[in-house]
Amino acid sequence: MAANSDEYSTEVLIIGAGAAGLLAARELAAAGRRVCLVEARGRVGGRVHTLLPPGFTQAIEAGAEFMHGEVPLTRSLLREAGIAWQAAEGQTYQMQGGQLQANADYFEQLPLLLEKLYALATDMPLAAFLTQEFPGEAHAALRTFATQFAEGYDAADASRVSAWALRDEWAAGGADDSPRPVGGYGPLLHWLAAQAQAAGATFHLATPIQEISWRPGAVEVRAENGATYHARQVLCTVPLGVWQLAAGQPGYLHVVPEIPAHRAAAVQLGFGSVIKIILEFETPFWHDRLPELEFLLSDAAVPTWWSQLPAPTPQLTGWLAGPAAHHLRDAPAETVLQQALESLSYLLATPLAALQAQLRAHYVRNWGSEPYAHGAYSYPTVGSAAARAALAAPVADTLFFAGEGVYEGPYGGTVEAALVSGQVAARLVLARYSS
Ligand SMILES: Cc1cc2nc3c(=O)[nH]c(=O)nc-3n(C[C@H](O)[C@H](O)[C@H](O)COP(=O)(O)OP(=O)(O)OC[C@H]3O[C@@H](n4cnc5c(N)ncnc54)[C@H](O)[C@@H]3O)c2cc1C
Fold it and tell me: β-pairing, 2-4 with 7-15?
């Protein structure tokens, strides 16, 4: 309800229209709360961004793409929205030192690694664990592969990521079953937004929030454009990367009075970078060398690639994550594109000029330098369960927190994590509401 043109009053203000904020908005509005959702970007979705850039013939995913594992809430919402999903298909290849292997058991030493991980009495960072348990030249390949996997899949820094958390993830084989929502994740998030709005929630897009001033039961939130929001409760779903900013950095979110325990918890957690490079070619010319290519894992500068199989679109997606992506977070898109093409030239044994002649469209998304994200997704560090709980803890039944970064459970760093955290936080907001 507008008091004047730039002053608004509501019961619950939600900051952030990603998966967590949208699901919470739907739940709270459906429960009869007056809900206003403010979002910095001019679109909903956050780290879900399905788009069709010029030159592409099939929509691409700049952010989330796969459903990693069972993801029960995601599947149930997709069903409710009438959106199907489709298994990825094809062959996994590995290329190391110029040697190409089809259907490679790329993690053949996993049983040995797990045996040592289960014997580990105290948690420690992966890098320290590998040095301790697998020293010397004999284990160099195992150390390299475990490090590449943690950096590539979890976008983690091996010197910080928790060995115990990786043990649980690797033992569960989470990366094995990874379908995609048909048409991308975007339609699911747009559907959630429409549901929230149909239940009465109002959305203010292109409204970056700068400051949250609070006392029990009353919050004043100031946006960059001068708008002010008054609410009894605020649910903040900004990414961990925003909470990790230091005072004075662009995008820093002021909280008055400060919430030091939350800030301290945020910096204990890991938040990795990812660069996605999506290329569409005239033809799927790689079929000759890599028939039925689904995934390609390698030692190239841009090491991981995948196709869109079973969709026949001649698209390849390059993936650079963890410290290597962080290192390039300020690199121009052309530099990243050049590295990607050079990597592909090596992997496909095809001259650069031939690749460029085939290239129809390209898209580079560098999440480490993206405002309102400052990274891609969180990863578990030693002691991160306590830190996540501290970051998720409500303040005076007035400030609440959600988003994949505060989720603790088997689906860390995913859309599922964000959705679950949004649902949990919405229920907490309702339970702590005093009339
Ligand atoms: C490259 C990439 C690939 C991924 N791949 C997968 C995958 O295959 N499968 C999977 O399940 N997950 C994947 N993820 C993770 C998944 O996208 C996220 O976990 C999930 O989308 C996070 O949702 P969220 O609501 O927690 O945060 P977000 O989606 O980031 O939403 C937070 C919102 O807050 C807004 N915001 C930030 N600051 C402010 C401010 N000051 N004022 C107002 N609004 C603000 C942001 O603009 C954003 O819209 C991937 C992520 C990336 C980046």
Answer: antiparallel
58: in domain: no
- Tokens representing residue 349 in the block: 């044994």
Q: Is residue 309 over pLDDT 50? A: yes
* Strand 315-321 with 304-306, pairing: antiparallel
Does residue 150 sit in the same domain as residue 212? no
Both 147 and 196 in a single domain? no
> What are the CA-CA distances from residue 314 to residues 203, 216, 276, 292, 401 (Å)?
37, 55, 16, 12, 41
How many whole angstroms separate alpha carbon 37 and alpha carbon 358?
44
CATH code, domain carrying 211: 3.50.50.60
The alpha carbon of 367 and the centre of ligand 1 are apart by a number of angstroms equal to 10
Distance CA 273, CA 375 (A): 5
Q: What does pTM read for this prediction?
A: 0.97
Residues 165 and 219 in one domain: no
Verify that 193 and 141 share a domain, yes or no: no
| 153-191 tens-digit pLDDT | 999 999 999 999 999 998 887 556 689 999 999 999 999
Secondary-structure percent of the chain, ordered helix, strand, coil, rounded to 5: 35, 25, 40
- Mean pLDDT in residue range 5-25: 96
- Which residues are near ligand 1 (CB < 6 Å)? 15-21, 38-41, 46-48, 63-66, 68, 208-209, 237-239, 242, 253, 274, 276, 367, 372-373, 376-377, 403-404, 413-418
- At 88-119, the pLDDT tens digits run 989 999 998 899 998 766 677 889 999 999 99
258-268 per-position pLDDT tens digit: 999 999 999 99
Nearest Cα residue to atom 35 of ligand 1 = 16
Report which of residues 362 and 149 the model is more confident about.
362
Closest atom of ligand 1 relative to the 403 alpha carbon: 26
Same domain (yes/no): 204, 255: yes
Q: What is the pLDDT of residues 336-363, one digit of tens each?
A: 999 999 999 999 999 999 999 999 999 9
Tell me the residue type at 290.
L
Residue of 377, 379, 406 best suited for mutating to test ligand 1, as the one with most atoms within 8 Å of CB: 377
Interval between CA 239 and ligand 1 midpoint (Å): 7
Q: Determine the structural domain holding residue 123 and report its residue range.
A: 108-172
Q: Is residue 304 part of a domain?
A: no
